[in-house]
Amino acid sequence: MKNLMLLFALAISFVSCSNDETPITQEPTPQLEKVIVFKNTANEQTWNFSATGQLYECLNNAGQRIESYTYNDKNQVVSWSKYTNGAVTATYNFTYNAAGIVSKINTTDITFNANTGYYSYTNNGITREVTLNADRMATFVKETNGTATTNYQMLYTAGNLMSFARTSTSSNFTKNYTYNTSATYKTNLGAMIAPVALIKSFMEPDFLANGFTSISVPEASQNGNPAALRYEYGAIPSERAMLFIGEEFVNNNPGNLTSYQEYYYAN
Q1: Which keywords label this protein (predicted)?
Q2: 71-101, pLDDT tens digit by residue?
C-alpha cells in the first residue's frame, strides 16, 4: 500500500505543478470511449464504446477483434459475434420479453419457472438456471452438464458486487470486494455493460467475477477465504483518462503494482 500511496502522491504533485491555474477535476466526463482490462497480461482486452455508450467490440492483447455486439433501440443486445483470427466463429441472436429479459437465444426459448424464480436455457447439452434481481443482474446461476453441476453466486449491495463464488464438485473459487463508499471512484462502466452482462449470465457467467458490473471501482479484492491473495486499488487521474492501479499482496506481503483498469474518455 505504501507503494500505491507514493505513486498517487507523485501523480497528484505532477498534475498540480503542470496545471497551477487549473483546478483538478475529480469527476471525468461521462463519455467513456475505451476501457482496457487485465493490462499487460495474456488476458488483456480493450473494450470500445460508441458515442451513445454501448460496448460494440472487444479486442485481444494483439489488437484483434474477439467479440462484437449490436443493439436495438431499447439498448438491448440483439446480436453477439465471436471471432478467431479475424473470422466469425459463432453468432448468437437474442429476443426479449416485455420485461426486458432474454426470452430466446437463436431458436432456443428461455423458460421461466415461477415456483423457483429460475430462467432456464439449454445449449449444447449444458443447462443454466439463472436468477435475476430487480436490476436484471444475475445473483445465482446453476449450471448442469450431464452429472456435473457448477453453482455461481453473486452478492450485490447498493449496486456493487460484494462477492462472487463458483462452486463445483471439482473446484471452488471465491472473490470478495470491499468499497469505501465515501471515497471510492464512481463509474458508469457497470451501467454501460449491463446489457452484455445480462446475455453472458446465460452463456458465460464467469464474466461476472471481476466486478465490472458494479457502480463503483473497488478499494480491494480478495481471492479465497481466508485470502492468500488480495489486491488494493487506487486511481490516478489525468485530463482524458483514469488509471486504476492495484498492488498485489500474497499472504499479506506486498508485491508488484499492476494495472487493474484504464478508462479513456472522448474529447
Answers
A1: Signal
A2: 999 999 999 999 999 899 999 999 999 999 9
